[in-house]
């Protein structure tokens, strides 16, 4: 893929789930782009000291919107009331979870909770509401803003980026388990593909990006496959730059910035 109209020229960007982990690092690296980024709106349920510090040192470029729960239908009106008709150039759907928020004694207990014998419908519903329906809700809410940006000739391509996962690749499954996480990510891939087709005529492109195996603290044990969050996010943003109308709807591995790789559905 070649770079065509990357995220440049003072883009207005919305990032969900930005109070910690990957979302926090995405915001940080967007702000480092300086003249390319006009404003970043960080959406989260609760802010964090790290996010508040970023905002206070951003010269007004970072605006934190907390009490935003993308798993709740009320988020649609919240965002519509706040943003009105303001053009938004890029939406990055990062908010997500591997399952119900719970502290596990060890990694084995976490994986056991996601097994066929133990997975609960509450766990499945929670994860779908956040991982699958969250990006759909927020895209619906900000649809007028995205279309306004695409129609106003702002000098760059309007984009929707969904942080997906190779765990959502049905063709790649070689073992059972991880029911709520894998199925919610497979489902958001279909949501994203549909959105890509619907928005292409409006000049809006969409990318489904696997960030890699990232050490965000979800598991207690870091394996040899884990990479640091900053390395993963560099790859994610490079992959986002490569999203065009020609490859809209593609499902790719950001590959830590070492060359984007297509992923099987």
UniProtKB/TrEMBL annotation:
Gene3D superfamilies: NAD(P)-binding Rossmann-like Domain. InterPro entries: NAD(P)-bd_dom_sf (IPR036291), SDR_enzymes (IPR052184), SDR_fam (IPR002347). It comes from the Eukaryota. GO terms for molecular function: oxidoreductase activity, acting on the CH-OH group of donors, NAD or NADP as acceptor. It holds the Pfam family adh_short. This is Uncharacterized oxidoreductase C663.
